[in-house]
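Hi everyone, sorry if this is the wrong subforum. Our group has a chain we'd like a structural model of before ordering constructs, and none of us has done structure prediction before. Sequence below.
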Amino acid sequence: MAKRVAVIGAGVSGLSAIKCCLDEDLEPTCFERSDDFGGLWKFTEDSKDGMTKVYKSLVLNVCKEMTSYSDFPFHEDYPNFMSHGKFWNYLQEFAEHFGLLKYIKFKTTVCSVTQCPDFSETGRWDVVTETEGKQARAVFDAVMICTGHYMNPHLPLESYPGIRKFKGQILHSQEYRTPEAFQGKRVLVIGLGNTGGDIAVELSRIAAQVLLSTRTGTWIFSRSSDGGYPHIMVATTRCNNLIVQVLPSCLVRWIHQRKLNKTLNHENYGLSIKKGKTEKFIVNDELPTCILCGTITVKTSVKEFTETSAVFEDGTVEADIDSVIFATGYTFSFPFLEEPLKSLCTKKMALYKQVFPPNLEKTTLAIIGLIGLTGSILAGTELQARWATRVFKGLCRIPPSQKLMAEFIKTEQLIQRTSSPLLLSHGETSS
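Answer:
Right subforum, don't worry. Here is the predicted structure as tokens:
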């Protein structure tokens, strides 16, 4: 009898998990709280359901040659960097081609995932779900959590004195869909990641002025490289990866910085990495031009707010701000898990190979998609799901939990020691 696997979430990670379960003759049941698959890639006009969705103008940062699932390439007529709509169409084609949709239960929320009384022997899980107000309970041999990074918007209002007095509009980038509502307004975007850069550029075409605040700075990559080929396809090679592993990290950074500053002197644009800050990279083809044209003004981090203004760390003041958009990222959580497993799973460093929690007697719980990659998340989740399903089936093995926990505790103690305020280098602050 095939082992039953509960898959939580029907985004790109969930689709990978379902497909890999079928490849290993496992029996998947996927629970998706929305009414469609695709996760954040299914565009909607609003976020009333509290789920993170893409904004209307979003274009992929990774080219199609490096984005597809291994056994389902894109159509030749798809552009190298496609819109979110075309990407969702690809996911639909993938799901229909491999018959994945019949394994998904839509409008179903997972309430709890707990170990069965005989877990130490069987590794089975008791899963409680709710569909349209009705609860159901089922037992599964394994669980794959595929809910991703973008669960809960991180809105750090407490870090900005005076923000409660600010009379303008305040929103998180999760709520942003289209620029029309910001016509003729002065907008402050806080946070310079890929989302913050994209939103600032789009608003610069319609707003009176866009202010872009960054406390770290960032390196900017273009989608195209020498000769017009996709940059990520040219840069991500086995040879370049070997060079990065062999050369000292300081030399690798110097080479990268020299090349990036040859194209765009980041210091002249107010984008250079601040001393003591971790290096960041974003993909944006238009931001430098917008800064040159004055439609976007790069600012330092915000020191405080008044009723209508923002005071920045460099002492400058910007008055008559109408809207503040926090592009400050997300926090992830697993509310359906019990402690201590819930807390352990939210620590990426705790997961064995960033997939398996180390404190379980049986390796029947896998976290899929909770990773950061240079390339496409699809490739990463597919490899994770392949490995996890083979572990569930008994074809692959991982070290016992006692050894994994000992390694985790040792790593955590080392991080705590090196993070001591007495050991921080000059200019370094906590994030």
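For your construct planning: The chain has two domains: 4-151+332-411, 152-330. The chain has a mean pLDDT of 89.
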